[in-house]
Amino acid sequence: MRFFENVAKTIFHNEGIPILEGHVANYPEEAMAISSEMGVPVVIKAQVLTGGRGKAGGVKFADNPGEALKVSEEILGMEIKGEKVKHLLVEEKAEILHEFFVTVSVDRGARRPVIIASKEGGIEIENLAKTNPEKIIKYYPNPLLEFLPYEAREVARKMEVPSELISPMGDIIWKLYNVFTKYDADTAEINPLVLTPKGLIAADAKMVVENDSLFRHQDLVDRMHYKKKAVDFVQLDGDIAVIGNGAGLTLTAMDMIKLNGGEPATFLDIGGGASEHIINQALSIVLNYERVKVVFLNVLGGITKADDVARGVIKALEDTDRKVPIVIRLTGTNEEEGQRILEEAGIPFETSMEKAALKAVELCEEIKAEGK
Ligand code: GDP
Ligand code: MN
Fold it and tell me: Order of strands, edge to edge, in the sheet holding 326-332?
């Protein structure tokens, strides 16, 4: 069974192989929110069970959250070698100085594991085998003995990496071999293994585990089941971002805004049982839209607990640099606790949806009148 890059990377990272900070996104707005939280240029990569994504257009860069949204929309609409892209990995973009290649695999002819490495990574190794076979190093560890760090450094030396890289390269090769044996892998591969100003980092990761051994790695298999979409989101033309829990309540909030002469900028349904994390994500999504002048958060707690919402709001407001007034209507389950939390943080709220909607529209008018 082959695993997605991000699952393979988590495993590699657990064994001490350096990777870049990254998070999985299941829809464009989520990628945008991640990019906004990370605050650095990112690389956005299709999570599919095939290689050659780069060539197919499944690996793209974004310098800001707006670009992240656009690029994610493009990649999520793609099919790569017949596989529809459903998940993305949003990762800090590495500054690449050089690309290497390291893989541990099974040489069926030799009936042994083999380490294949090259100082010419990035490109497909099959092509390199045709054009420059001498640049491909093969090393056969003895599967009955422990693979020792000096052997891994020997591979690095044969790759002809610069002398200062022999030790860190050897370290990664040694760890990759350990991943290979520990997880009963058919393949554990890093292509490219990149040299950056911060050192060597696994920019890509491939792991295939022998099917007959999967019962020993249930935790890995479980990680392939990604969570479903967390929030439902539609972008609109107005300037008041509407967030609610439940589609009906969100639509009602939009109607209220309209009734008072305002224009909604978003429909964003955080669903039931909204955690702090989801509130945080919802706010960071709407605050990324330039046109949003006021946020109207309409929560009637049922499964969703008002105190969770209150904590989420506070956390999200702390995290964002963009100061946009937020009008909150908060009632329902645990409302006393939720309202107390907001009061303590000095964040005003309403309990009536009608009043809150009117207040949001008035605030927006004031802001526009001030020409902000
Ligand atoms: P693959 O095409 O499916 O093997 O996907 P990879 O993850 O290997 O990415 C393809 C190529 O994109 C790499 O060989 C790199 O040249 C480039 N790439 C991937 N991640 C980064 C990054 O963080 N920074 C830069 N500059 N390039 C990257
Ligand atoms: Mn690759």
Answer: 232-235, 264-269, 240-244, 294-301, 326-332
